[in-house]
Design brief:
Elements lengths: L7 H16 L16 H17 L2 E4 L3 E3 L5 E9 L1 H5 L6 E8 L2 E9 L5 E5 L4 E3 L2 E2 L12 E5 L10 E3 L4 H9 L5 E4 L6 H14 L2 E4 L16 E4 L2 H13 L3
Parallel strand pairs: 1-3, 9-10, 9-11
Antiparallel strand pairs: 1-2, 3-4, 4-5, 5-6, 6-7, 7-8, 11-13, 12-13
Helix pairs in contact: 1-2, 4-5
Length: 250
């Protein structure tokens, strides 16, 4: 008998809906969580996500609650609130990021902006979408007019026209996928897989170039591992950024 393939985007949308509902009346935005890098809002959002994903029988790798084995071979990588520091300060730029993987193979991803409601989605080999409309990157191939999203503190010699440090890797990657940014780069190689998994899949499906800054594999299921995602509108501009990383002091 052929196994039934779940509607992964339907599951991810129900999970995002649960997080939106849990935060709709939330007021303790500045309250801290149990860890120094955690807020109460992260915990509330994580509990809401788990309430949908656990009954679905999938494995779960969450920034907030770690790894939970499921009945199925697939795992959902969860960042309940990517950009939670923004959220805590009421800066309206944060999202939920969800990515289904089978082993280390991404199957589907969803990033929903938790203020505007914009929703980026992708299913492997089926393209990338913003609110149901196909998206593509800008096509920028050089630095002269490129606007780059950055995690970290770039030097003045970063090959870009302008730089944006916006505080949500998932949303920055989706901005590359739809042409709002021309590239995104983590200068400190300090992101957990939950920060970028969905965004990387969405970028790749849009036609953008994606890689890890040191050439390592981006998809994994290790809670403690940190990597440096990067994305660019074209391979040519990615090569320019890689050259910068190679030559930059330190």
């Amino acid at each position: 008998m052929t196994a039934v393939v779940p509607d992964w985007l339907e599951l991810l949308r129900r999970t995002a809906d649960a997080v939106v509902a849990a935060l709709s009346g939330f007021e303790r935005w500045k309250d801290r969580g149990d860890r120094p890098d955690q807020y109460a809002l992260d915990q509330v959002a994580d509990a809401a996500a788990l309430g949908v994903l656990v009954p679905a029988g999938v494995g779960i790798l969450s920034e907030e609650s770690g790894f939970r084995r499921g009945r199925r071979s697939e795992t959902v990588i969860v960042d309940p609130v990517d950009g939670s520091t923004n959220a805590s300060r009421r800066v309206p730029h944060y999202c939920i990021s969800l990515c289904v993987v089978d082993g280390e193979i991404p199957l589907a991803g969803l990033v929903r902006h938790l203020v505007s409601g914009e929703e980026f989605t992708a299913v492997a080999s089926e393209g990338a979408y913003l609110d149901g409309r196909p998206i593509t990157p800008s096509g920028a191939s050089g630095a002269a007019e490129a606007i780059v999203g950055v995690s970290g503190r770039p030097g003045v010699d970063l090959p870009a026209w302008q730089v944006r440090v916006l505080g949500s890797a998932a949303l920055d990657l989706c901005a590359v996928a739809c042409g709002r940014l021309d590239a995104y780069i983590d200068l400190n190689a300090n992101h957990g897989v939950w920060d970028y998994a969905a965004g990387v899949l969405i970028c790749a499906e849009s036609g953008a170039f994606v890689a890890e800054t040191s050439g390592r594999e981006l998809f994994h299921l290790e809670h403690g591992r940190r990597l440096g995602p990067m994305a660019a509108s074209t391979p040519e501009y990615a090569a320019v950024l890689r050259n910068y990383l190679t030559e930059a002091p330190g």
